[in-house]
Structures are given as structure tokens and as C-alpha cells.
Amino acid sequence: MPFHYCYRCCAAFRPRYKRLVDNIYPVNPEDGLIRANLDKLIFYSCSSPEKLDRIGEYLAQRVNRDIYRRKYAFITLSMEAMDQLLASCHNRALNLYLESFLLTIEDLLQSDNPDLKILASQSFNRFANIEEDVPQYHRRYKFFVESFSQICHSSHNNPDVRTRLRLAGLKGIQGVIRKTCSEELADSIWIEDRMNLIMPSLLFNMQDVRPLGDRRTPDFDSESQQNDPSTIAESCLCEIFKRTPFNCEEILLKPLLAHLDNHSLWTPSDFAMYIFERIMCTVPVHLTYRVIAILMGHLEASRKKPAQIRIEINNVLTRAISIATGDGAGGPSVLMIVDGLLKQLQNFTSAKFKSVPEEDIAFKDGIITTLASFSKACPDFQKTDILTFIVERIPVEKENDKGLQRVLLEAVAKVAEHYKTVQLHSIFKNDLVAEKLTYGLLSPDIATRLLAHQVLHSLLDRHGNVDRVKKVSLILEDPSLNFASPGRSDIMFFRKYGKELLETCYSSMTLELNMKCIEFVYTTFALMILEISCEETAVDFVHCIISFQDLAISTTDMDAKMQSMIHSITICLLSLLSLSLKIEKLKTYTREVAAIRNRLCPELLPLAASTLKSVPENIPTECLLSRQEIAGIFKLIGWESAHMQLADAAPPVRNFGKDPIGAAAADLGGVILDIESPSASPQTVKRSPSTDISFKTFKNILSESIESRRDAKRERWNEMAAFYRTATFAEMMERQESVRQKRTPGVPIFEFEQKHRLEPFEPSLSPEQLGSYAIKFPELLMS
Fold first, then answer.
1. Is 90:128 a contact under the CB 8 Å cutoff?
2. What's the mean pLDDT in 111-135?
3. Structure confidence at residue 631 (pLDDT)
């Protein structure tokens, strides 16, 4: 008979640690552990730590045996004893004891008794709160994550038991998170397999227990909330995102978004909104942009889903962006967020709709609102970057991109509403932005033109005058208008862009018009007068006003109401100019012309123009604005340069016609260089480029493939080689002469040689006297 079987017959022969363990159990389990004997066991384990692992193994054996025999009361006593030993012993031998302890918890979790599962969760949480001195590389928590996640989805028939089980599962997950996050070298839960179990368990309890309408931030420390599964789940969710390491956000959010999709929790978006509010308020500030990027990617991936779902996802995205920017977390991710939103707008315009559904229009409006709210929270320098970034994305050439052009201009208009211009030159960061806006002002589509004007209204209005000049009205005196004297930078802005904007306003009048178009042109012109009018710019404003009048007179096929409105805006703009320049004589002249019109031709004033049906064929001369009269006023006040410019014939106002892009590029994107004249430098010949260099030229160069350029170059070389192989010397010289004339026109080839040609060499000695060393060169080489 083996020796260890004798232990069962006589307790005196058993090891001391077993006797100490057996002595802690009472005869009746309801009496609880014998406290004196438990203290002896604890003292023995602390004084002899090498026995701690054997004590743990023996306790695990007793628990396993009691589970099989269904002695649940003794199991509770055993787990209490193990917890007491875990809390009392802190030495290196504790690691060996923990192996038996965790195996015991696994056995409890595998049982069918709900009380044992709850007991296992409680013991695991006590274990999670212990800080170990030595990290355990071999310990794995996969089983615990799976078991606790399964308990979180308990569907027990008894509601009280079901609640207790779900609480036990949530607290177990919370313990796993705390344990793994506190040990850097331990088994990590920041992997996809773990989070695919944890995140749905938390969301299931959050949305299943608490009503969707009751979404207030809970008090996690209150006693009543400690027994609420949704509160514990929310606390655990916040703890996970608070401890999130860098580059693990997608691992957390991917199962979360999948759960919202699978359970149709986007419509309505109350629950999803609340979840992301908690996430954005918990995640570290420097990682909020990652959450926004992932949510934006999910919106991109949902482009084939119903519009209502995309609208709700966008609402959640808007709320997340507002929280992030409120914390100052926009940072370098600003353009990334804007780019993602612009992709959504591009997807909207690329969709093939016979008639655009109302839900898709609402989704488009929601994206633009999100973009506007995001830019509103950004500082001014980032708003400028956002405006520039959006404008540069506006297409200008393709006919099928008109929808995208209109949508992007609508987005620019929304963003510009929240931008406060300080310096006008900051509106256009580069000439490409000015070109895109100019193209919008000259678009054949009326809606696109109105949006471009709306953008300029927001950008030009620095003193809050836009509401006062939205309607065409004759303002003879208005103290509510805010006039400002322009600075040097404003005048430089006008020199670079102002004249072209005025010409663009004139050219837009030659396109298809309605009353709203004229009103928007008037508002743009009026804002420029209120912001930039001074002695240096007054002449250009007057030239354009008179050009409007000439256009209304010379255009015979224009609608009568349109003609009358154009006549009326001329007197209104001149009145604003006189008020802004504060020239009393010009104010008097404007009042006189207005009075004459009111008496002889009231159709040329704003009030009568809106209800007019016909315009008189012969308008009295005194009802029209006179260039000479205005020039005389400028001379009287001492503006000699302005008088001289107005006294001459009006400079032609260019009409860009059907090619606004090339004209805009030549006007706004061109750089004029003053090259020294030929008279000052006779040897320098000024040449003009053989081809018209414009934005379109550069774009063709960039879009041309390398292979085509290489083939063209090879073909030119072949033609040149064939020419020099077959051409005569005279043909070669003629070709060289033409090339030289192209490079320096007006200078004949070999001019220097013809002036300084040497005379032929004529030797004075005879060939016999020269000797044998003399060589006779051909006459061709001697001349």
C-alpha cells in the first residue's frame, strides 16, 4: 500500500499545511470559518512562504471536490479563505499560489450555479486589485474575458438573478482591464479578439437596461448606481478609453460601430450620440482626432446604406467634432477632417439620381452644417486654411462637375459666414483661389453665381454692412452704415484683385440675369465701396458704374425690368460712393440726378423698377450720370489725377465671354514685369512669348504624359537629322537665318562679320619664292 494512503487513516501523519487547512472548516458551514484556525493558517503561510503554493493546491482540490458534490456552502468558505490568504501574503511565493487561485476561479465560472459565478467574479476583482512585484509573462486572461462576456449577456428567467449575473460579468471585465493595464508586460487585451467580446457586452448592458431618453451623466460613486448594470458598463467603457494606448483606437471602435450597425442603433441616434459623447470626453485629448477619423471612415463605408442612417451617423460625427474642437484638439488634423467631409459631398454629387431624394438632400445639408460648425470652432488662421482648401477643390472645366462645383461653393459660403475678415489680402492666399471664385461669378448657372457672390459678401464685409445693402435702395444719408478708411494693404489688395472683381461684376451682367442676380452684384459692389473707397480707387468705381449705365443703354434685347434695375443700381452705387468718400459736391450731384429721375423718369429709381413693365425708349440726358460732371467734381476738390483719368474716354471694361478661366488666369494669376526698354538699352531686344501662357497652358503641361513628350522630342530629332542629311548648304543657311531672326528679331545674321569682313589674302611673293613649306588654301577658306 502506498505511503500517502496512510494519511487518510491517521490525521497525525498528514502534512501540517493540510491539517491547518482542514481545521479552518466548521462542522456546520453556516457557522462560518473558524477565525482562530484561519489566523494560524495565515501566520503559517507568511512564516513559511514556500508552503503557500501547496496550500493553494490543496484548497483548489477541496473546492473542485465540493463543486462535484454540490456543497456550495463549503465552496463559499474555501473562497473566503483563499481571499484572506491572497490579501495577507505579499511575497515572491505569491505567484505560485495565484496559479491555483486562478484555476479555482475558472472551475467556478464553468459551473451552472449563478451564485458560484458571482463568487468567482468577486474573487477575481480582489485579485485584480493586488499589485504584483514580478510580471507574469505566461499568464493569459482569454478564458476570463470569454467567461465574463458570456455572463454579461445572461438571460436568466429570474430578473434579480439576471441583474446580479450581469453585474458580476461587468465587474469581472472591469477587473481584467485593471489587471492587464497595470502590468505592461502581461497579456494584453488591446487586441481585436478581446475587444470583439468586451465592447458588445458593455453596449448590450448600456442600451438594454437604461431607457434611451434618460441619458444623464451618472454618479459612479453613489451606492444606488453600483447596482445598476448600465452604470457599471458605462464606467467600464470610460475606463477602457481612458487607458487606451496610442494606435489602438480602431481596435476599440471597430466592434463598437459593428454593434451599432447590427442592432440598428443609429436610428434614432440618441444612444449612439450618448456613447460618443462619453468617449470624446474620456479619451485623451491628443487622440480625439483618431476617433473622428475612424467615425468618418465608417460614414464613408456606409455610403450604400439608407440616407437616414447616414444622416444620423453624420449627426453623431458633428457632435464628436464639436467636443474635440471645444477642447482645442483640432490641431494638425483639421484638413484631414475637412477632406473627409468633402469626400462625402463628392459622393453625393457623383450618385446617379433621376430626382434627388429629400433624404439625400438632408444628408448633404447635414455634411455642410458639420463642416460649418467645425470651422466655427477653429481659430481664424485655420478658417483661412479651410476656405482655401475647399476653394482649391472646386472644379472649373468639366461640364459634368457643375453639381460638385455648386455644392462646394455652398460649403464655402457656410464656412465663410463664421469667418471674420481682418485684412482683405488674407481672403485670397493664392491666385488659384481668386481664379476659382472668378469662375464661379461668371458661371452660366445662376445658382452657382449667387453662391460665389454670397461667399464674397461674407469675406468682404468687415464692418457689418451686408444686411443694410442686401436690397437695392437709394441711400442718400444713413448713419447706421459703418465707413472705414482703407489702409495700405487694402489698396494693394484692390490693385491686385479689386479691378478684376469689378470687371467680373460687369461681365456677369452680360449673362442670363434675374432680379436676384442684380441684387447680389449690387451688394458685392456696395461692400467693395464701403471697404476700399478712397482717392486711389474712386476712379475705378466710377468707371464701372458708368459702364453699367452704358450696358443698360446699349443692350436692346434685355428685359425692361432688368434694364431699369441696372439704371437704378448706378445711382445707388454712386450715392454710396459719395457717402463713403464724404464729398459734399458729389452728394449734391447725386441728389440732383435722383430728383430729376423722380420727376422725369421714375422708372430709373429702385422703387419703381421692381414693378416696371417697360422702359422709355429715349431717356433724357439729364437723367443719366455724366462722366464729365463727376470728373469736374474731382477737379474742384483737388483730385487732379482722378480728374485726368475720368476726363479721358472710359477704359474698355473687358467682357470675359465664354472663356472666363483663361481671362481670370491672365488677370488674377499673371505677373507683370517691367523690362528695360530698347531705347535705354539698344543691344537688348524685348521679345513677347510665342505662346499664350495661362493657367490652362500649365495644366496641359502637367497633365501631358512623359511618353508623349518623349515621342514628340524623338520625332523632332528625326526631322532635324533628315533635314541636315538631305538639305543643301544654302537651305541650311536660310534655316539658320530664320531661327536667329526668331531669337533676336531685327538683327540680321552675320551682321558683325559683314561689317568687319577681312580682305582676301594676296601674297606679295611668287609661289617659287615661298618655298615648299607654303600651303595653298582654297579660296573659300581664305575669304
1. no
2. 86
3. 85
